[in-house]
Amino acid sequence: MVSMVTFKVDGMSCNGCSGKLQSALSKVPGVSSAEVTLDPGQAAIQYDEQKVTPVALQHVVEDVGFDVIA
């Protein structure tokens, strides 16, 4: 089943940052699309909930070097 999650992301300062994060999220197995915007700082991710969880996606954001804001 396809689900959608949007994270508020802090720490991105340029288009290179958002591109780096979008690329990392797009490579995660189960992610069908990832759209990262600099302003506002957010990541909208469409994913297969049987292959990946929102918590795992949050860890990807953090591993790239950004913070997810609650």
UniProtKB/TrEMBL annotation:
Gene: copZ_2
Species: Gluconobacter kondonii
Pfam families named in the record: HMA
Protein name per the record: Copper chaperone CopZ
Keyword Metal-binding: yes
Keywords: Metal-binding
Domain HMA: 3-69
Protein's UniProt keywords contain Metal-binding: yes
InterPro entries attached to this UniProt entry: Heavy-metal-associated_CS, HMA_dom, HMA_dom_sf, MerP/CopZ
